[in-house]
Predict the 3D structure of the following.
Amino acid sequence: QVQLVESGGGLVQAGGSLRLSCAASGSIFSINAMGWYRQAPGKQRELVAAITSGGSTNYADSGKGRFTISRDGAKNTVSLQMNSLKPEDTAVYYCNAGLQERRGVTVVAGPLWGQGTQVTVSS
């Protein structure tokens, strides 16, 4: 029943900015890490940025210096601030979470993906 819902995608000019947000809802026991991946047509899905529950972050080289990931643990949300966007950033961006979900009296662990949000950067 846990779901990830992304928002904030859209169309921007090169050099512009977008802020993506991902909210996890449902009966969550814990979240170990959350992150953003992206996939362009004809290409593999790739990591953009991730953040652990302890605040450790990891960025792909493509976004270093331009993107910033942050997490609000209390709200189970993660945001990706993207600045100085380039046309090559165009892709569907997916939120991902490594979490433990409450199901009755048990806890089930596993990854979860959002449905994705389109980011298009024009030249």
The longest strand covers residues 91-103. DSSP finds no helices and eleven strands in the chain. The radius of gyration is 15 Å. The chain has a mean pLDDT of 94.
